[in-house]
Records
---
Amino acid sequence: MAIRVLLVDDQPLLRTGFRMILEAEQDIAVVGEAGDGLQALDQVRALQPDVVLMDIRMPRMDGVEATRQITGPGRDGPAKVLVLTTFDLDEYVVEALRAGASGFLLKDAPAHELVQAIRVVAAGEAMLAPSITRRLLDKYADHLPSGEEPVPDTLHTLTEREVEVLKLVARGLSNAEIAADLFVSETTVKTHVGHVLTKLGLRDRVQAAVYAYESGLVRPGAQ
């Protein structure tokens, strides 16, 4: 079955461009469009998309609040949110990730990256590009814990290896890269990641990365 995508952006020209790119793919179907967050909520309820391609700054309701309502408790469907951003609006991306977005993508990303990001998010994974993640978190280092704060009690539920994996996830490494770093198999890494998400009550790798930084386990700029 095709991945059902809802396009949310207040610029019709951008929506048209995204639609042309996505409709060229056999496994993706654009089921609707919205020009602001309120329209997006109505369209999500009516169309039940798999992925919402969400702009951040829009009239009436911005993408952060719309994301929160789409992915929060009592949501009407299984829609995942992929946020569109420019580096000028980085602070809003951080808020969108906290609100429940499954990842983010630059508006000027190549067409193949847009298509791949939608497939990744639709499959239940997180679109967490290491270079963008590092830049975001480094830029907002002053607003995140310094690493000197007490470690949250929930972290004590993790094994030593699970803490290692969480740190590497927070730095944007893929399962293959983590496996190479720790000299284990990718299957083992997937198991550890699953345990981390379950123990900490997190939805995906994006939330795990945000948690690691906000808890002070990982400090922006640290290697």
---
Amino acid sequence: MTDTTAEIQDYYRGKAAEAAEAKSCCAPDPTRFGPGAYGDIGPGEASDAALLASLGCGNPTAVAELRDGETVLDLGSGAGLDLILSARRVGPDGQVFGLDFLEEMLAVARQNIEDAEVGNVILLKGTIEQIPLPAATVDVIISNCVINLSVDKPAVFAEMARVLAPGGRLGITDVVAEDHLTPADRAERGGVSQCIAGALSKAEYLSLLAEAGLTDAEVVFTQDAADGMHSAIIRARKPGGCC
């Protein structure tokens, strides 16, 4: 482990501790945000370093219902927790891609993946607005509280639809606003809880999924993040495929 990787892991351990003490940056219940959302992880499934680095708003690996042999893409893969869990769920015949734009974060994920001894993960450097994969490459896209941070969300949805294989699906978690909140309302709440800045409304989420050609879409609120803002499970499917 390099000194830089160790320093970043220490940083994220500190951030996780701060989130727990403050009852999370997004919500009053740390048992369902950050590491608390992964209460069903079995012994040895992931390292403490990877778990403590999780600052998301859910557990997309549980939402996506991953199966043996599938190819998975994690948008904004961070320190690698969801990559490790996905790799174990899809098994040696499956493949997991992790996409992040920070080289330093990729270094942390690389170390955590090595420590977990999983060999079916490929890390990619890039942005979620321009996914560096060919079309129809993946069966499942997961993401944990990342899409709300994008400044070009239509591009993200178009890219997700492009790289999904026919019949492929989304199983992501994100922070979503109630429809009555204006962009100004959301920006004001983001000033208090930065991890919800830029969140789409439920109607906007469903509209962008439809515009991208994704079907069977649903946005289900799971927990309050701020007044009129919620952690949510988002599912959708690309038409086609055998099932």
---
Amino acid sequence: MKLTTITNVSVDGVMQGLGLADEDRRGGFERGGWALPLVDEETMTRLGEVYGRADAFLFGRRTYEIFAASWGAMADPQDNPVAAPLHARPKYVVSKTLTDPGWAHTTVLAGDPAAAVRELKERMPGELQVHGSGQLVRRLAAEGLIDEMLLLTYPVIVGQGTRLFPADGPDGALELVDSRATPGGVTWQVYRPAGRPRYATEVPPRTS
């Protein structure tokens, strides 16, 4: 099974609180809702296509609860290109404390997340998508379990908040396989892991 991560980030790499002002105030974050004003029609159309191709979804607990309270609470999800696949297809949530998820077709993965995801990838066909879920994405990246990364970068500098990747973490090279921009300035980059980065090993001679 192909594992794809889909992450909305600002130009300075922030992924926290992109939707609503009070979506995620951890750490004193006060700049929530930075992405929604920049979402244009083409972005929503493409996102609908991305969600529509998923065979299953994987979440960390916090993102799962945000999605369940919004997309999961829609009265007529079948009429929405994002909500329809979220409702109909299997959902897996990594959590050691969630015991009774209210969203249909949800399975809680309470054990080691890396082992659980490896097992899913081995026994299921299709595409497993991870939306948001920064802590989980960082763990999956460190374990080499991500096959493709889709980054939606919004033309804004948030200036505070949780970044996609930590200031000190494992490195990795990426292969850019697709890149495009919407009329509203949201850029889409699709990357595949490409092993370790290459670092310069020689210092060029000084010219003066």
